Amino acid sequence: MARKPLIAGNWKMNLNHLEAIALVQKIAFSLPAKYFDKVDVTVIPPFTDIRSVQTLVEGDKLLLTYGAQDVSAHDSGAYTGEISGFMLAKLGCTFVVVGHSERRTLHCEDNDTVLAKTKAALKNGITPIVCIGEGLDVREAGEHVSYNVEQLRGSLAGLSAEDIAKVVIAYEPVWAIGTGRVASAADAQEVCAAIRATLGDLASPDVASGVRVLYGGSVNAKNVGEIVGQTDVDGALVGGASLKADEFATLSAIAAGGPLP
Ligand SMILES: O=C[C@H](O)COP(=O)(O)O
């Protein structure tokens, strides 16, 4: 099954709402409509920027989408500081990142939490981008494939095939995030192929062939072409390079197959 590439820019805790407007305007200016037939492009700003991005995207009828970096597992109630899937849906979010390694590590999120958040996203019609990835110790021990398969199984445990068909998976080796140390294209393909095979076990080969599997970790305009050229890599979750309009637009255009903007 042909899968349309997805380039998702995770801004992490960067840019206020005014800076967000400026960045989205620049990206949109650099990526005319013709690119969006061949690539989906989404920006993932901090919560405080989402309403401004929504106003811009809807007002100017931009073709890029936007999402959030996290979602509560709960619908509403006494959960100070949390943001629900219902709230994000009302803001027009298409995607939400779930289980990013920074949340798993810094906020002690385990697979059960990631699963609950994935369900909360799906319940509200938002596509979860479910992140998995091994640390350097696991990679050096040569256990990265089994580690990622286990993390994926835990993060999707009990979901129906119908729900699995609606998720995006992002493979992000922790040692490659923000380090400039990108996995080789072969490394990315090895794990993304194992992810797809596992999705086949959890749902069906047909479902697995339609799910987009992204790579993340020091992706930029120079390396994105080789990475998304791999059979089982359907795009990228981009951190640092997504904060630079020119570079993000260029790598999105490369994922679309060109030409360069
Ligand atoms: O969500 C994005 C990833 O953590 C990758 O970040 P990076 O591109 O800055 O390495």
What does it look like?
The chain is α/β, with parallel strands linked by helices and 261 residues long. The protein is built from twelve helices and eight strands. The chain has helices spanning 17-30, 47-59, 85-90, 101-106, 111-123, 136-140, 144-155, 161-164, 185-202, 205-208, 224-228, 245-255, and strands spanning 6-10, 40-44, 65-68, 95-98, 127-132, 168-171, 212-216, 235-238. Strands 1-2-3-4-5-6-7-8 form an eight-stranded parallel beta barrel, surrounded by five helices. Helix 5 (111-123) crosses helix 7 and helix 7 (144-155) crosses helix 9 (185-202). The chain is globular. The protein starts with 5 loop residues before the first strand and ends in a 6-residue tail after the last helix. The model has no long low-confidence stretch (mean pLDDT 97). The site of glyceraldehyde-3-phosphate has 14 residues, from strand 8. Glyceraldehyde-3-phosphate is lined by residues 10, 100, 172, 177-178, 216-219, 237-241.
Gross morphology is: globular
Distance between the termini: 28 Å
Count of individual helical segments: 12
Assembly state: single chain
Order of helices and strands: EHEHEHEHHEHHHEHHEHEH
State mean pLDDT (0 to 100 scale).
Answer: 97
Helical residues, percent: 40-55%
EC number: 5.3.1.1
Keywords: Cytoplasm, Gluconeogenesis, Glycolysis, Isomerase
Family: Belongs to the triosephosphate isomerase family.
Subcellular location: Cytoplasm
